[in-house]
Every structure is written in C-alpha cells, then in structure tokens.
C-alpha cells in the first residue's frame, strides 16, 4: 500500500512540476495581446526553434504510438517514423516557405488565397475540425486513460480518468493559448523521451541484449504482403500520408508557423526530424520486440507489461507522469488547433469578423471537451484503437491533400471543382474501407489521392469551362 502511494505521489509531483515550469515560462507573455490571432493562436511568433521542435514531437508522440506500435511487436513499424522524417523535410522545404510568404495563421488560409475563395477554406477547415472532434480527441482520452488504469491497476471506472485528462488538457489550451501548449509540450518531451529511452535500455538488459530466438519476421524491415506495412507500400501511399499529416494538418503545422521567422521555424522542424530519426523508432518498437521474447504475442498489452516488469517500482510513478504528459500535450494541442480552425476559418468569415478571440475559443474548447468525452464509450468497443483511427483518418486525409496539391501546382482552378473532388474522395475511400478493399489501404490512399486530383481537373474543365495551368516555377507565389 505504501508503495502504491509512493507511485501516485511521484506521478502527481512530476505532473505538477511540468505545470509549474510552464507557468514560469509563460507568465511574462503579453496578455494584452491575447485578443489577436497571432498572439493567441501563433504565440505572437514567439516560439524559438527549441519549442517548435519540442511541441511538434510531443503533439505526435502519445500512447497510441508507444502502446499501439509496440503492440505489433515487430521492427517493421519503425517505417512510420522513418517516413515521418521525409514528411517533416517536405514541411520545412516546401510548405513552410509558402505558409510564411502568404502570412497564414491556418494551413487552410493558404487554400483561400490560392483559390481566391473563402468557402474552400471553411470546407477543409470544417473537415479538419470534425476529424479532430470525432476521431483524434476521444481516441487520445480513451488510450491514455486505459493505459493509466492498466498500469496502476486502478479499480475505478475508466471515465473518471477520461474526465481528469480532459479537464487538465483543456486548462492548458484555455488559459494559455498556443504558447502554454508549446512550452508544456517541450518540458513534457524531455521527460517522456528520457523515460522511454530508459525503458529501451532496461528491456534489452532484461534479455542480456540477446535477440536470438525471436522470429526473423519480427526483426525484418522488409514487410511481406500480409504484414502491417508491405514493402511496396513504401513506394506508393506512405509518403503522401506523411505529407498530409506533417505539412497540412493544423495540429502539427501550427507549431512551425508560430516561430518569429521562416529560418527559425525550419530549424525547429529539422530538429524534430532528427529526434524522429535517432530516438523515436527505437522507443516504439524495441520494447515490443523484447516483450515478444519474454511473453510471446500479447498484442497491445506488451508495452504496459514490460514497463511494469523492468522499471523499479518507485520509477513507475514518474513514467506514468511522462505518459500522462504525452496524452495531455497531444490533447491540448488538438484542442488549440481546433479552436484556431473554427475561429479563423469559420467564425471570422461567416459570423463576426472581429470576435472576442479568447471568449469564442474558450467556448469552442468547452464544446470539444464535452463531445470528445461523450464519444469515448464508442472507442471502448473497438477491437483495435490504431486500426480504427487509421481507417477513419483515411476518409479525409487524401481528399484534403488533393486540394493542397491542386492549389499549389495549378492556376485557374475553380474552388468548387476542388471541393467536389474532396467530397468525391471521401466517398471513394469510404467504399474502399467499409465495402470493397482490393488492395492494402496504403495503396488505396494513393489511388484516392490521384482520383481526387483528376476529378478536380475534370470538373474544372467540363463544368466550369476553365483550363488549369501547371505552374511548377510559381509554387511559392
């Protein structure tokens, strides 16, 4: 019993320390400027490359990766992280120069400027907002709460933990805007990465650094047709999935757009890419592989089981604080970016051009918290949290990316043609996901993307009688 209280005490101490450090860093910010979009949503361009890198890393890294990817118990899953490096480079070298040149607050603002139409901005922003609300936010609450319940072996209703995560995560987003979110992300990042590296070392130590006896397919980086990532998918849809996630997803790019200038933003993104290349692949696959040797194929329980066995009992509370930080940072980041999308893409365009930004954002955040909590029971029924998220995100990822590709590579394309293609793509991928799946879903994502681009160009020519012009040399204009 004393040990349990020690674990819980260390957990709360670690969590409180992150909150205190965040408060100290943010308390000097100019609160009078919080009524402007740039201050509240982009920290008034005040994020140094360190906080850009830290926030990007921790916004992405959460229990869905640590638990879900280790749950596959095979090295092959590291390809998601290696491919992410390419996605971050594309963000830094291709998309960020365009966002900064066009002085964008949201990624969707670029679409309004390229298509010269506010409606496409609202449609794509609305899709991002719906995806965050109905998929990402409740999944984060469920995954984090489930892990905490399992790790501490708490005999309480899961929803109590869900409420706790939701309230604390909302507090960061409501009280501090992006500045507090990014700072807490970075401090949390030091803890979660440090603890995760320790788990990798201790797990390897538990088997004497000897991987013998583990089936070759568990250690291979070349996936067969029946594997989660067949090798040929790396040549088709994988790169476009990463481009969508890292370069157009407001939750990620908002951090890079909050630097004082393009050079500082690119520096932060490259640092985040370095972390993904050198650290993240190991922490999301090695403990799971070791767990296979120790316990066999135990699926999503692999990470929690091995962490509970190898960590000294007094460290388990600190590790729980680290994982809680990972969940909270992802959750409050998604809340902040969702509020940004609503205020900038919808409210200011259709309701009030000069709203009380903090007031409206707080209301939106409160609604999102309530909705995400209410949807958690639906995710509890899923056989696989990660597989469900992959399918649901696929409904919007390639259609949205097609709007960006057409807007950047072509001139003289009617906004309604791009919107039509987005709606078509969502329907097409829904058929692939829930009806007819002739190929691996990563291949089908590429097919969906190509189909959307072709539909946009065809509708533009046949319906709106406009001939699109390819403009490689003018992509940054």
User: How would you sum up the major sheet?
Assistant: 2 strands, antiparallel
Based on CA inertia axes, which overall geometry fits?
Answer: globular
Total domains, how many?
2
Average pLDDT taken over every residue: 85
Strands side by side in the biggest sheet:
1-2
Explain briefly what this protein structure is:
The protein has 2 domains: 2-213 and 247-381, Sodium/glucose cotransporter; 385-477, no CATH class. The chain is built from 20 helices and 2 strands. It has a two-stranded antiparallel sheet.
Explain the overall architecture.
There is one protein chain. With 477 residues, the chain is mostly helical. The chain has two domains: 2-213 and 247-381, Sodium/glucose cotransporter (Up-down Bundle), CATH 1.20.1730; 385-477, no CATH class. The protein has 20 helices and two strands. The chain has helices at residues 2-26, 37-42, 49-60, 63-66, 68-71, 79-101, 107-115, 118-152, 158-206, 216-219, 238-248, 250-256, 262-278, 280-295, 302-310, 313-350, 357-380, 385-409, 415-434, 441-462, and strands at residues 410-411, 469-470. Strands 1-2 form a two-stranded antiparallel ribbon. Helix 7 packs parallel to helix 18 (385-409). It is globular. Residues 30-34 have low confidence and may be disordered.
């Amino acid at each position: 019993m004393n040990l349990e209280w020690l674990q819980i005490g260390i957990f709360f101490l670690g969590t409180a320390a992150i909150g205190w450090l965040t408060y100290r860093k943010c308390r000097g910010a100019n609160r009078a400027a919080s009524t402007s979009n740039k201050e509240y949503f982009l920290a008034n361009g005040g994020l140094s490359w360190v906080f850009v890198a830290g926030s990007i890393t921790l916004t992405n890294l959460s229990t869905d990766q640590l638990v879900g990817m280790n749950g596959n118990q095979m090295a092959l899953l590291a390809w998601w992280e290696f491919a992410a490096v390419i996605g971050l480079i594309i963000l830094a070298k291709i998309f960020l120069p365009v966002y900064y040149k066009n002085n964008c607050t949201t990624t969707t603002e670029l679409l309004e400027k390229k298509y010269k139409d506010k409606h496409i901005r609202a449609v794509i922003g609305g899709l991002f907002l719906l995806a965050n609300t109905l998929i990402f936010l409740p999944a984060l609450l469920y995954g984090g709460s489930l892990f905490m319940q399992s790790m501490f072996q708490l005999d309480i209703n899961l929803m109590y933990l869900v409420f706790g995560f939701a309230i604390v995560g909302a507090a960061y987003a409501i009280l501090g805007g992006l500045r507090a979110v990014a700072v807490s992300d970075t401090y949390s990042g030091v803890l979660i990465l440090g603890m995760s590296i320790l788990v990798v070392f201790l797990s390897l130590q538990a088997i004497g650094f000897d991987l013998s006896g583990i089936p070759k397919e568990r250690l291979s980086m070349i996936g067969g047709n029946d594997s989660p990532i067949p090798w040929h998918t790396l040549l088709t849809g994988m790169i476009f999935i990463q481009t969508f996630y890292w370069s157009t997803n407001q939750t990620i790019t908002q951090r890079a757009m909050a630097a004082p200038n393009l050079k500082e933003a690119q520096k932060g993104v490259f640092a985040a890419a370095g972390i993904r290349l050198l650290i993240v692949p190991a922490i999301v696959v090695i403990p799971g592989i070791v767990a296979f040797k120790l316990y066999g194929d135990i699926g999503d329980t692999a990470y929690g089981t091995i962490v509970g066995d190898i960590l000294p009992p007094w460290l388990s509370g600190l590790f729980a604080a680290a994982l809680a930080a990972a969940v909270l940072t992802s959750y409050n980041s998604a809340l902040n970016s969702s509020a940004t999308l609503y205020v900038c893409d919808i409210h200011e365009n259709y309701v009030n051009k000069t709203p009380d930004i903090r007031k409206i954002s707080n209301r939106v955040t409160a609604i999102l918290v309530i909705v995400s909590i209410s949807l958690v029971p639906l995710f509890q029924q899923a056989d696989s949290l990660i597989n469900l998220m992959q399918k649901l995100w696929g409904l919007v990822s390639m259609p949205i990316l097609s709007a960006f590709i057409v807007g950047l590579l072509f001139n003289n394309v009617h906004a309604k043609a791009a919107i039509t293609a987005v709606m078509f793509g969502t329907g097409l991928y829904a058929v692939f996901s829930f009806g007819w799946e002739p190929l691996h879903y990563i291949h089908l994502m590429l097919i969906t993307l190509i189909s959307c681009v072709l539909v946009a160009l065809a509708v533009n020519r046949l319906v709106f009688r406009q001939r699109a012009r390819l403009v490689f040399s003018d992509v940054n204009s």
